[in-house]
Amino acid sequence: MNQDNYDYYEESEDDAEQYAIRPNKTQLKKDIAELFALGEKLSRISATQLASLAIPDKIHQAIREVSGMPLNSARKRLLKYIAGQLHKMDCEPIKESLAKLENKSAHAAREHHQVERWRDRLLAEGDKALTELLDDYPDVDRQYLRQLLRTAQKEQAASAPPRANRLLYRYLKTVLDGEAHFDDAEDDEEEDMDDEEQDAS
């Protein structure tokens, strides 16, 4: 073995691996672009969601910083830095956790729109929509729902603060979630509504 070969084997394992496997520049650019996009996604989630991910403190702080920056060159530089740091670690667990958060957010958005549609239909169509809702969800507390609906319609007609409207939304949400009975909450809300009606009279 000549001296040159000896020197090669004396180098660190990381250096030897770099000699043996030269990175493809096109693939490297693609990887960095994907990590840049991942950094963008991470910058858009809430602080609570971000804290739930297994991200090193240095990257976590950079993401928090970039989330509050305007769209300028400094922000782009920081995102490139984040992408470079992410490139040094296994990002698959982060991607999987982020995908779960996105799916959960998408489900919550769909649920929110469904509840809003039912509430708006009940307020606009009255008994027709109520009959359909009761057919789909027979365990609903009909008396309580009718009371909420009547009060919300009165508020709407009088351009009053939409307290009953909000309670109607909350109750419909529990119905669509499959939790039609929450007696303690209903009792508290009914007492509040009764107090407000007495104050108004």
Give the helix/strand layout.
Layout: H1 3-10, H2 13-20, H3 25-44, H4 47-51, H5 57-67, H6 73-86, H7 92-125, H8 127-136, H9 142-158, H10 163-176, H11 183-200
Helix pairs in contact: 3-5, 3-6, 5-6, 7-8, 7-10, 9-10
Provide keyphrases for this structure.
2 domains; Diphtheria Toxin Repressor, domain 2; 79% helix; elongated; 201 residues
Description:
With 201 residues, this protein is mostly helical. It folds into two domains: 3-89, Orthogonal Bundle (Diphtheria Toxin Repressor, domain 2), CATH 1.10.60; 107-200, Diphtheria Toxin Repressor, domain 2 (Orthogonal Bundle). The protein contains eleven helices and no strands. Residues 1-20 and 180-201 have low confidence and may be disordered.
Number of domains: 2
Gross morphology: elongated
* Spans where pLDDT lies below 50 across 5 or more residues: 1-20, 180-201
Rounded to the nearest angstrom, the distance between the terminal CA atoms is 102 Å
How confident overall, as mean pLDDT? Answer: 79
Task: Supply Rg.
Answer: 28 Å
Look up the CATH topology of the largest domain: Diphtheria Toxin Repressor, domain 2
Largest sheet: none
- How much strand content do the residues show? under 5%
Enumerate how many helices there are, as a single number. 11
What's the CATH C level of the largest domain? Answer: Mainly Alpha
